Amino acid sequence: MDIVVFGAGSLGSLVGGLLAGDHDVTLVAREDHARAVRESGLSLEGAVDGPARVFPAATTDGTGLEADLAVVTVKAFDTETAADRLATGAIDAVLSLQNGMGNESILADRLEAPVLAGTATYGAVLREPGVVACTGVGEVVLGAREGGPSSLADAVGDGFRSAGIETLVAADMPRRLWEKLAVNAGINAITALTETENGAVLDAPAADLARAASRETARVARACDVALSSDEAVAAMEAVAEATAANTSSMAQDVRAGRRTEIDAINGYVVDRAVDHGLSVPTNRTLAALVRTWERGRGLR
Ligand SMILES: NC(=O)C1=CN([C@@H]2O[C@H](COP(=O)(O)OP(=O)(O)OC[C@H]3O[C@@H](n4cnc5c(N)ncnc54)[C@H](OP(=O)(O)O)[C@@H]3O)[C@@H](O)[C@H]2O)C=CC1
Ligand SMILES: CC(C)(CO)C(=O)C(=O)O
Questions:
Q1: What is the CATH number of the domain that holds 85?
Q2: Which Gene Ontology cellular-component terms appear in the entry (predicted)?
Q3: Domain that holds residue 36
């Protein structure tokens, strides 16, 4: 397959680097990373099997690209830009592997190509330009964004697996996206605001807050016709917090680095959909307001 990875930072470089072992890959990245990849290739470190160095194409210009598939791995607040750039090229299919909700709708509204939904539980860190590390082998789950079977998702899943990426093709992506949202809603903002690792949400005093955020998310999911019980949402959040107890969540990393966060697509999204359905989600509302206040204080929004 000809594959464009739009937003080759941490996750995009890992996924793009693995895909490059078996496909023709073009990374759309920032200048210093793109230059390093063009000059010396992309080094893959850490918990991955396969080549230690691959040689994908790399560009800073995401316009006019042609590909069988575009994998979108920008942060949620850059999805509109990614979609607008991709729309100037000839892309046959699109897959989002981003956290948060709303990314697939933004892509589908701006692009004619079919859009698949996806989640990734791989851990990835861009160590320096041209060098990405896998900090945890996880899984990519992908499928039709509205749920149900999809021959396109099957073909993309085959392409990912042939490149050595653990991949599941799922017919229940709406539920999986909401479950991941419940996980992120419970863990990310709390660990970002309190400068703690993921395991902190398993114990008092944070545990009640994290459970409340996940339960509220499940209630909103049900209002959106997605069958996710509060117990399932809390269990999923706690299982991830336990499995990644020593990890720094992506939002905590963003706050530590003084970067804008994905709050709008996580707790903020829960609040927006709760408003649509006349529901009250005080924990998510508070967490979103606190993180947005932090961002505003640093001139990030
Ligand atoms: N890292 C991980 O382990 C995981 C991440 N995720 C999710 O994946 C998504 C990406 O995360 P992550 O890889 O960590 O984020 P990064 O910020 O490392 O990667 C995104 C990259 O895209 C670049 N970018 C944004 N817009 C453009 C553009 N127009 N042209 C070229 N490059 C652009 C960014 O540059 P700049 O910063 O300069 O804007 C950045 O380098 C998020 O939704 C995250 O929540 C999910 C699972 C695991
Ligand atoms: C699953 C979790 C919480 C892992 O850290 C994550 O997705 C994130 O940090 O954004």
A1: 3.40.50.720
A2: cytoplasm
A3: 2-169
DSSP 188-239: HHHHHHHT--GGGGGSTTHHHHHHHHHHHHHHHHHHTT----HHHHHHHHHH
Indicate whether this complex's ipTM tops 0.85: yes
Whether residue 94 is found in the same domain as residue 243: no
Domain CATH for 263: 1.10.1040.10
Q: Are residues 124 and 212 in the same domain?
A: no
Domain-terminating residue out of 169, 191, 214:
169
pLDDT digits (tens, 9 = 90+) for 256-283: 999 999 999 999 999 999 999 999 999 9
75 is known as an active-site residue: no
Instruction: For residue 39, report the distance from its CA to the centre of ligand 2, in Å.
Output: 32
Q: Is the pTM of this model over 0.95?
A: yes
Q: Which two tokens mark 140?
A: 């990519």
Closest ligand 1 atom to Cα of 82 = 29
The Å distance, Cα 249 to ligand 2 centre, comes to 5
> Which residue is closest in CA terms to ligand 2's atom 7?
184
Q: Which ligand is nearest to the CA of 244?
A: 2
Of 73, 149, 100, whose CA–CA distance to 265 is shortest?
Answer: 100
The closest alpha carbon to 215, from 245, 194, 237, 192, belongs to 237
Same-domain status, 18 and 150: yes
Same domain for 232 and 123: no
